[in-house]
Amino acid sequence: MLFRILLRYIIGYINIRIEGYSVEKLINICIKKKIFFWNIKRERSTIIYTNIGVREFKELAQIAKQTGCRVKILDKKGMPFILHKYKKRKIIIFLLLFIIIALLSLSQFIWNIKIEGNNNISTQELTAILESKGIKIGILKNSIDKQKIINEIRLERDDIAWIGIDVQGTNVTVEVVETSAKPEIVNEEDYCNVVSDKDAQIVKISAQNGIPAVKEGDIVTKGDILIQGWIDGKYTGTRYVHANGEVQGKVWYTQKEQVPLNQVVERLTGNEEQKYKIKINNFTINLFKTLSKFEKYDTIEASNKLKIFSNFYLPIELIKVTNKEKLEEKITYGTEEAKQIGIQKASEKIEDELQDDVEVLQKYINTYENKDYIEVEVTYEVLENIGTKEKIVF
Amino acid sequence: MQRRNKRRKEKILDRILEVPKEIATNEPKITISGFKQMLVENYKVILEYQDIYIRIKTYTGIINVNGFNLKLGEMTEDDIVISRRY
After folding, report:
1. Is residue A97 part of a domain?
2. Beta bridge partners of B80
3. Tens of pLDDT along B3-44?
4. Of A12, A25, A15, nearest to A65 (Cα)?
């Protein structure tokens, strides 16, 4: 029923008043002839208000004549009448057409590029690569040859394991999977040496296979051979083996930190002001004065791309500029205080660097006092496994 | 149209196939849902339609409905809905 009413709204309907003594008869005949009308209102015993479709009205008028009722049109409603009203207003129609054409044509371009999944490769680098391959903001959607670009990038870059380009509406999502630079895995059958991967002092060396090349207490540098993968025999000649073993060494991590005694620290006061800008492609319109009322402030810009549907971006950006007032404060540290800060900073940096399964043997702290600053040098002596397998290349 | 005016009886086949009575015969069926709506199936004609009083003729008799703000809606050849106007 509701569907039929909605259909009438599109086709057009009229609101009429029927007046006569035998209105019921008229209704009955209309029902028999399957004329659809709705929203009947009875005012008095002789008057009825109802809605009826435009096409059925002629039939109804005939029936009304038969039954001796008078029909009066009160209102015309529906799409055709609304359109008729706007027929003379050409600018509105022109603008509507313009909007539709603009939407359709703008939806053929790409307005947003999103890069996901990159940790080591910077986003700028990837955008530069994509730009050289033809994916940039403002190009036609159809001109992207996805498979070709994917193949080209994968051929060029070794550190990209997989790349996926997905065009959705007006934005492109580029998903990247990086290859992590793993050490070369040496097969069990291959001949190899055990090589130091850090500068260290050997604490313990136990070779399961092969000949130890260094003694305990030796100082090795990165790349030195710890366990040889070849055995020289008097009678057998040189024989190669798969060297294997555990080498533990003392490794030193050093971190220097300078702490100025007089520092200027910035502190936010909490006062804010917000300004808005509109950016159309590359053209910026300031809605407020650009000058801030604060003397010293941080500026945070947050841009918001306009979109119609969930992924239909328009080339219009709304930029919100937040200015946060800040104050500069001078702080003077005492020497002890400065030392503590320096030690803490340096220790934190070293601990970030350390691997999880290491044993810290000792910590050395040296401090040098200067006129303006205090220099702190923190050294960690750490016991850890050094030694990785390296294939022997003939 | 003439067939409609005849009173149709329930046939054996309809009873075997369990066809609903309001379809198989011309007997009226009145469904009242809450205090707001009343559906009359298999009616003949509307005899009278006023705000407070509606008379509907069916094949077995006349239904009189008394009330306030009565409204007829969803009228088709076979069924009619009497509801409350808001």
Report:
1. no
2. B40
3. 455 666 777 888 888 888 878 888 889 999 988 899 999 898
4. A25
Strand ranges of the sheet holding B79-84, from the earlier edge strand across to the other edge:
B29-33, B37-41, B79-84, B70-73
Q: What is the domain count for chain A?
A: 4
Domain that holds residue A366: 187-261+333-394
Work out the end-to-end distance of chain B between its first and last CA atoms, rounded to an integer number of angstroms: 36
CB of A361 closer than 8 Å to CB of A250: yes
Residues A230 and A362 in one domain: yes
Answer yes or no: do A268 and A257 share one domain. Answer: no
Chain centre to alpha carbon of residue A338: 41
Q: Per the structure, how many domains does chain B have? A: 1
Greatest Cα-to-Cα distance within chain B, rounded to the nearest angstrom:
45
Domain assignment present for residue A72? The answer is: yes
Task: For an interface test with A, give the residue of B46, B62, B82 to mutate (most A CBs within 10 A).
Answer: B46
Residue A96 maps to a domain = no
Sheet strands (E) in A234-307: 237-240, 244-260, 262-280, 283-286, 297-307
Q: Which range marks the domain in which residue B76 is found?
A: 2-84
Predicted local confidence at residue B30, as pLDDT: 93
Residue A191 near residue A242 (C-beta atoms within 8 A): yes
Phi then psi for residue A45, to 5 deg, are -70, -10
Cα–Cα distance, B69 to B62 (Å, whole number): 20
Question: Chain A, 209-248: which have a CB under 8 Å from a chain B CB?
Answer: none
A164 and A197 assigned to the same domain? no
Q: Does residue A343 sit in the same domain as residue A390?
A: yes
Q: What is the ipTM of this complex?
A: 0.82
Low-confidence ranges of chain A (pLDDT < 70): 180-185, 394
Nearest to A33 by CA among A64, A75, A63: A63
pLDDT digits 0-9 by tens, A204-235: 888 888 788 888 888 888 878 888 878 877 77
Contacts of A39 in chain B (CB under 8 A): 73
Can you read off the two tokens belonging to residue A113?
């590029």
Q: Is residue A239 part of a domain?
A: yes
With CB atoms and an 8 Å threshold, state whether B49 touches A42. yes
Tell me the C-alpha distance between B73 and B70, whole Å. Answer: 10
